[in-house]
């Protein structure tokens, strides 16, 4: 499958599989990048082709300004994906990425594309509001929050040069996630599969169960031992779950 210049900016295909019967679009967490999903792509190929989203302001898009509005991100990605996707597709988003995946799915459904499933990981339902303001804190406090969630290699957090590179994107992503407010309207009709860690300070089981209210399709909740980045310890189990659901 050919890919447009615009899509090439936003989408990374680590293991191209144009003949795959299904595709999985992966949306990273705040401060995350497409490369986080390289192991997922390797594990699911060639039966599922993984398309990992690369936000501006990091890795090979470092020179671009980060986008600190989740709705702007959703609009741009919906335009890109609407032109690129054909055939069965599912979304996987972790943390901020889950909210973004939901908003992109809403936009695509308005254009006639219904997902096989939306996997919402480590994130409360869009309508489960928390007033969080980490993005307004100083650099030290912001980094302390990241360390608390164990989402970034501690060696990275101790390297001043790397920190200067990642802080703008990290703060921008936190702002996008924390200022996001659910807007009532058509939700999604695809099944939603919520996945959480049982010790995640960012989402409770009750907040995760509220995803059921945002879909007219089925709903499942899967809980794993661990915190916000339970994925790091349970990737094989989560990948099996995704593969099984898409194989159906």
TrEMBL record:
One Pfam family, short name: Thioesterase
Domain of life assignment: Bacteria
Keywords for the protein's UniProt record, in alphabetical order: Hydrolase
Sequence similarity: Belongs to the thioesterase family.
Domain called Thioesterase TesA-like: residue spans: 25-246
Cross-referenced Gene3D superfamilies: alpha/beta hydrolase (3.40.50.1820)
Species annotation: Amycolatopsis eburnea
SMART domains recorded: PKS_TE
Listed name of the protein: Thioesterase
SUPFAM superfamilies named in the record: alpha/beta-Hydrolases
GO molecular function, one term: hydrolase activity
Entries under PANTHER family matching the protein: S-ACYL FATTY ACID SYNTHASE THIOESTERASE, MEDIUM CHAIN, THIOESTERASE
GO BP annotation list: lipid biosynthetic process
């Amino acid at each position: 499958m050919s890919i447009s210049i615009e899509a090439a900016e936003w989408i990374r295909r680590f293991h191209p599989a144009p003949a795959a019967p299904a595709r999985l679009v992966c949306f990273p967490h705040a401060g995350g990048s497409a490369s986080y999903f390289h192991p997922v792509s390797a594990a699911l190929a060639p039966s599922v082709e993984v398309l990992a989203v690369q936000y501006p302001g990091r890795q090979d898009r470092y020179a671009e300004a980060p986008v600190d509005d989740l709705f702007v991100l959703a609009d741009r990605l919906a335009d890109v994906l609407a032109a690129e996707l054909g055939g069965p597709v599912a979304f996987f988003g972790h943390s901020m990425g889950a909210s973004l995946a939901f908003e992109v799915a809403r936009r695509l459904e308005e254009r006639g594309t219904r997902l096989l499933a939306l996997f919402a990981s480590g994130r409360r339902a869009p309508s489960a509001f928390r007033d969080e303001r980490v993005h307004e804190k100083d650099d030290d406090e912001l980094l302390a929050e990241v360390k608390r969630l164990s989402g970034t290699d501690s060696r990275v957090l101790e390297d001043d040069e790397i920190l200067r590179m990642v802080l703008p994107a990290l703060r921008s992503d936190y702002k996008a996630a924390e200022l996001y407010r659910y807007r009532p309207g058509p939700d999604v009709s695809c099944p939603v599969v919520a996945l959480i860690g049982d010790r995640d300070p960012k989402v409770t089981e009750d907040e995760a169960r509220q995803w059921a209210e945002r879909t007219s399709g089925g709903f499942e909740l899967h809980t794993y031992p661990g915190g916000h980045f339970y994925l790091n310890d349970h990737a094989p189990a989560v990948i099996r779950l995704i593969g099984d659901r898409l194989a159906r």
